[in-house]
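Need tokens for this chain, all 359 residues.
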Amino acid sequence: RESHAWLDISTHSGLLRARPLSVTYPTMRGSLFAVAALGLICSALAAPAVTQLGPLPVNQTSVAVSGLSSGGFMAVQFHVAFSSLVDSAGVIAGGPYYCAAGDYNHIERCMAMPEVLDVNPLIAQAIQYAKDGAIDDLSNLADDHVWLYSGRVDTLVRQGVMEKLDQFYQHFVSSSQISKDFDQMSQHGFPTLNYGVLCEMLESPFILKCNYDGAGKILQNAYGHLNPPVQPNPSNVLSFDASIYGVNSNLLPIGYIYVPTGCRNTSSPEPLCRLHVAFHGCEQSYEFIDTKYVENTGYNAYAESNNIVVLYPQAAKNPEKKNPNGCFDWWGVTDENYATKTGPQMAAIKNMVDAILGK
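Here are the structure tokens for all 359 residues:
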């Protein structure tokens, strides 16, 4: 491993590798501040990332994922493909693995036509991919934790699609390990306690004020008992250079990560923390809603009080590839291997995870 000076915002203990500079950038809330010589920033969408991910004291063998809408499809995809590492998935308004089968024209059936959606070919494709080594051994899924959520008035991804996702998971995961909530009167969006638009509204930023703790439900399903959430520290939201982790990945050049105060001591010999990857939905990257998904879905409040590092990859819009809304790739935006470990977007995000794990 290369020898470098590793610097942390508050402890100089080794969080992120920084390039020395002294310039002025807008913060995520639009005000200005002078960046110190460390060059560690919470950047806005116009500001270039100036950091790189580095090893953190997280569990090396256990990663959890979650996501909404296209991020829900991506969470399933990442869970299934990297099941030797990922052991929990929380899915809001997503669908079965390989649902679109690499065909943009199949998107509608995977969102609004569950009556014509047959999960058996999708199960068969996953099994074949595993036999070919394109994804991990599916037996890894058996004891994983899965949490599924679908709003009763979701008009974009019908509840029947989530029922088909349940059928898919039932084939590989013990039924006792799958939890579901299909009873809430919510539209298409991420349900929170007190942030966003009204719960039954279909409107940007697709974060819903439902008096429902979606992030808490996801994290509790993944990790069991948690300490109560606390006020997250805004300085613990960091941007990083995401462009170095993959080519043609259809990801934005800036990613975000929340590193709790308790996870900054990288010299610890024991893993103090856990890693969670949170995938936003369409029209929820910083190209569309700034950092609202990163800051207001509720993950960071639990992350701070429970030593959970949260990685927020950012998907790019690409009208030329029929992805004008910045969705994660669950139908083949990047290439035909999109649902496997070598898919450009999948591999890039795995490289981010590996950087945090120190691999």
